[in-house]
Amino acid sequence: MDFSLRHCVVVVLPFLLLLCKTTSTSDSHHHGLKSLHFTLFQHETINKTGYIIVNGVAGPGVSQNTTPFGTLFVFQDPLTVTANRSSKLVGIGEGTSITSSLDGLQSISIAKITLRMKRHVGSISIVGGTHNIKPSDHPVVGGTGDFMFVQGYVTSSPLDLQGQTVVYKIEFHLYWPPYAVKKPSS
Ligand SMILES: *[C@@H]1O[C@H](CO)[C@@H](O)[C@H](O)[C@H]1NC(C)=O
Ligand SMILES: *[C@@H]1O[C@H](CO)[C@@H](O)[C@H](O)[C@H]1NC(C)=O
């Protein structure tokens, strides 16, 4: 008698816990996902903040818009709040891209973007395809610090392809899943 009663409690409790968890998860959905949308500008200077490390093997040569298939490029570029390089520096983009189309126009890019903004400090990691002369969406695969568990995408658009320094407009569309939202640290 005693045993079967205890057994009953043990069986029921996990269900109650499950019920509580389910309720709190759907509750945070009611308030919508935490999201953040902002734009920064990336400045890349050939042979200063970005270098060809391995030469490509086929297709068009190195030009303002193209690099040969297989070219390995590495960069560490400043990110500012306006297209003017003298504007406030709020981030650094570090990464690599490998020319992956035979016409020399597209590459696979991997980057870590470290951000130091007023209310968000940390990094986000992105990976995806980049087109040299058209806007490209890069999925966000995660982050650190205030960007821990972040999802979304980053759109990179070439703004100014002339001259030594190329400027890209970088639009961030970030979403925090319910389990990642924490109270802001003081
Ligand atoms: C960058 O450096 C490489 C190797 O020294 C050189 O061949 C290339 O012309 C340079 N590019 C520019 C745009 O200065
Ligand atoms: C960029 O910003 C600097 C410093 O604020 C300013 O002197 C300069 O005129 C700006 N350049 C352009 C093209 O707006």
TrEMBL record:
GO terms for cellular component: apoplast. Residues 1-25 form the signal peptide. Its main location: secreted. Pfam families: Dirigent. Keywords: Apoplast, Secreted, Signal. It comes from the Eukaryota. The keyword Signal applies. It is found in: Secreted, Extracellular space, Apoplast. Homodimer. Belongs to the plant dirigent protein family. Dirigent proteins impart stereoselectivity on the phenoxy radical-coupling reaction, yielding optically active lignans from two molecules of coniferyl alcohol in the biosynthesis of lignans, flavonolignans, and alkaloids and thus plays a central role in plant secondary metabolism. This is Dirigent protein. The lineage of its organism: Eukaryota, Viridiplantae, Streptophyta, Embryophyta, Tracheophyta.
